[in-house]
Design goal:
Aminoglycoside 3'-phosphotransferase, Chain: A, domain 2, 2 domains, 4-stranded antiparallel beta sheet, 11 helices, about 15% strand
Length: about 375
Amino acid sequence: MRHPTRSFPASLCCAAAISLLAVSAFAQDQTLTWIPGSSVKLYQINGECDWFVLNSERPEAVRLALAYNFLELLVQIQEVDWRGLGLDAALKDPGPDAAGAELDRWEAELRRVALEPVPELEVVLRWLREHARPARRTVLVHGDFKPGNALVDGDRIAAMLDWETAHLGDPLEDLGWITNPVRAREHQIQGLWERADIVAAYSAATGHHFARPGNRFWPALHRSGFTPRLLCPDEQEQLLDIGLGITNIVARATARADQLRPDELREGGRELAAKVGRLSPRWLAIVGVTAYRTAFGRPGASVGPQDQTLGRTRVWVLPNPSGLNAHWSAESLADEFARLRTAADGAAADGAAADSAAADSARLRTAADSAGPEPSGTSQLPW
């Protein structure tokens, strides 16, 4: 789509117009012409609608590739610059109360069409309101994202259709829809592309560490005193402002830690050691003792401070914060993170005191520089 003053994604096109800002299809490799007024120029898009294409008779590799493509398309939709496109002129920004806004909308619709009381839905509405969480950010939400609303041409997605329920809201709304077990036959492939796989791939596609719902990394980081407030995964760059860094041992996303191969971990350990050598942080925290044992050849290692150092950098192994790690509660996890923070703060204070005792003015300047916050490498495995 082209517009004199607005930049549209290459894959965004309109197939029907309700208003100037209506969005009806999200198609691959299409260029549409913006026509001022209440209509748009229509193009024919080839493809077929198959609700169960992910569980069709197509080869397994093709179906898995399509599943990834659907997820990538979902992320592209969420990355649309809705402010730059002016979509907020037609779609209301609900802010952090996106869940409440959607509940209001659908409750009003229920009241409008219900012919008699439906007590079961009243219970559901009450439960949803009691458990609604603030949205981390506002994105363009499709509202009915599924293969049954897409055109597939050969082995590629040609268009995403049926945008009548599109709105601005929480990115987890569409993600929750495609991981809904009730509709698993549409969105998932048993044994290959299930809920955990989808969420792990989504985390990797959005570029945010520990973004999987249920992961306790960010709460533990806050409860232990590392961060002044609870950060969201998409706020990870703010860690640099408080002297912390975050990276991967292995960049490939997996649903569980045990899906990483030993050779991947060993290679990742070598690359991480080289990175630490360049940055020289005071501490390196490895999240996950099993990964540390393999990546750095320390089969007998346990959680806590390690004898191993990487140059001048000390090493601490933290527990895996995944919700699947039942050996560590939220409280004990935060306590272990706090032990590291206390040790790191104490070492920094001792170093600053030793430096300040020197009489040489040049050395004092060096001490002042080194006493400032340095990035501490927090190594993360993507689960």
